[in-house]
Amino acid sequence: MVEDDPSVAGLLKTVLEDSEYHVYVAGNGREGLDVVVNYRVDGILLDMHMPVMNGRTMLDELRWLEYQIPVLAMSDALDLPALRQLLSEGAQGFFLKPCNLQSLKQSCHQIFKNDGMSGSFLQPFHTG
């Protein structure tokens, strides 16, 4: 998970670990790329607005480096043009924060456990 707000990161980490995920937390996109390079990662929850390197830039870097890791983007602001851009650049979904935790867990299970590539369950974005 790449999230710069420690309270949000802590809550989401707890929720995902309760669902039996092993969670690495990075505070910005640069740290997130370091995690991807150094550890096996099955999926990324990616905040869009962060210091040092934002989520869109990290997603661009991941794809440029040819990582095909499924990504669920998160933001506290709905920006439809940016959302369309993220989805066209390879994000599998989008959540508005604060998000519905049950919906987030379900999407993580579907996308990360199934390599993010199958089924009609992929919604363009989810709101909580």
Set down the secondary structure blueprint.
Blueprint: H1 6-18, H2 29-38, E1 44-47, H3 55-64, E2 71-75, H4 80-88, E3 93-96, H5 101-113
Parallel strand pairs: 1-2, 2-3
Overview of this protein structure:
The protein has 128 residues and is mainly alpha-helical. The chain has one domain (6-113): 3-Layer(aba) Sandwich (Rossmann fold), CATH 3.40.50.2300. It has helices spanning 6-18, 29-38, 55-64, 80-88, 101-113; strands spanning 44-47, 71-75, 93-96. Strands 1-2-3 form a three-stranded parallel sheet, sandwiched between helices. Helix 3 links the parallel strand 1 (44-47) and strand 2 (71-75). Helix 2 (29-38) runs parallel beside helix 3.
Mean pLDDT: 79
The beta-strand count equals: 3
The unreliable regions are 114-128
In percent terms, what proportion of residues is strand? 5-15%
CATH architecture: 3-Layer(aba) Sandwich
**Helical percent range?**
40-55%
Q: Main beta sheet, described?
A: 3 strands, parallel
SSE arrangement, N to C? HHEHEHEH
CATH topology: Rossmann fold
How many structurally independent domains?
A: 1
Determine Rg (CA atoms, Å).
13 Å
CATH class division:
Alpha Beta
Overall shape: it is globular
Strand order of the largest sheet: 1-2-3
Give the termini separation. Answer: 18 Å
CATH homologous superfamily name?
Response regulator
> How large is the count of helical segments?
5
**Structural class, please?**
mainly alpha
